[in-house]
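sry for the spam today, last one i promise. struct tokens for design, 310 residues
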């Protein structure tokens, strides 16, 4: 485990970015710490400086503005269930948040942290001595993917459970950067590259997650894992329809990025399922086999369509 040499606690976003710039890239933002500290313990994260964002009040709270629900990035996963605006309009987000880890983890982990959690792989998320003995992979400065024996691409998987639910409901992010603030569509931040899974500059802070109101979303959320607590996902699916008949499928756990398929309730369902399976570049780097997880995509989506009566 790497012990930090510098621990900083800014009180504003601007102060956090100033502190980060002074570290010349050798830092990590931290909030709940459930992902960062686990990776530090395994030697996969070793920045000497941690910048703790938990004292920044503007990153917390839930509010409504311009037909969007704004959820502060530092809201803890377990606390989401206590906001009536989320419970009334976006219950699937609460279901997704409650599927993460254990009560102890959900009481510390933040929504922003979950959508930014580091991609995982059975051959990467191991102790330092284990990785050294088997040989370093592409994601930890090696020259080969242990799972595929290829040298060109890393297929570590996006394992966020809240991301599919949010993406299926057309979520956006409000970002703070050194150049100012901007909004992006959530699924656009994921690159599909397991080594560099997000296209956000390191000097970026997620301020809020934005969800569109008055769409009357109906969502079915499902998660595949060996136990119904603690385990990271092997496949998470969210299927959402709105009051105009728009349909959106989002998957995690089967690709380095979110697999997204958009359509309408009138589209051929088998074609939508086929497109989702084709987009999932799952490999054998999980406790479940590649074949089983791809088969379960079809099962989950069929079940979701049936539950939505479409």
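last one done:
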């Amino acid at each position: 485990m790497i012990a930090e040499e510098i621990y900083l606690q800014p009180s504003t976003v601007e102060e956090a970015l100033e502190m980060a710039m002074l570290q010349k890239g050798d830092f990590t933002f931290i909030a709940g710490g459930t992902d960062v500290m686990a990776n530090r313990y395994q030697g996969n994260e070793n920045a000497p400086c941690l910048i703790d964002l938990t004292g920044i009040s503007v990153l917390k709270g839930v509010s409504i503005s311009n037909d969007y629900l704004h959820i502060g990035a530092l809201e803890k996963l377990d606390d989401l269930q206590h906001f009536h605006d989320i419970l009334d309009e976006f219950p699937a987000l609460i279901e997704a948040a409650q599927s993460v880890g254990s009560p102890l983890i959900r009481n510390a982990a933040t929504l922003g942290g979950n959508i930014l959690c580091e991609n995982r792989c059975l051959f990467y998320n191991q102790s330092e001595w284990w990785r050294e003995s088997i040989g370093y992979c592409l994601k930890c400065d090696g020259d080969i993917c242990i799972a595929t024996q290829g040298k060109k691409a890393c297929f570590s998987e996006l394992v966020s459970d809240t991301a599919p639910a949010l993406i299926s409901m057309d979520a956006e992010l409000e970002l703070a950067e050194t150049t100012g603030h901007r909004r992006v569509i959530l699924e656009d931040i994921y690159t599909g590259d397991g080594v560099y899974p997000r296209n956000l500059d390191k000097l970026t802070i997620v301020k809020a997650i934005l969800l569109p109101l008055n769409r009357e979303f109906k969502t079915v959320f499902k998660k595949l894992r060996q136990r119904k607590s603690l385990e990271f996902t092997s496949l998470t699916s969210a299927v959402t329809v709105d009051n105009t008949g728009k349909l959106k499928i989002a998957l995690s756990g089967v690709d380095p990025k979110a697999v997204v398929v958009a359509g309408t309730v009138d589209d051929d369902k088998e074609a939508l399922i086929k497109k989702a399976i084709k987009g999932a570049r799952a490999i054998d780097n999980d406790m479940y086999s590649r074949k089983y997880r791809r088969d379960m995509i079809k099962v989950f989506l069929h079940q979701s369509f049936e539950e939505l009566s479409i």
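The mean pLDDT is 96. ok im logging off now
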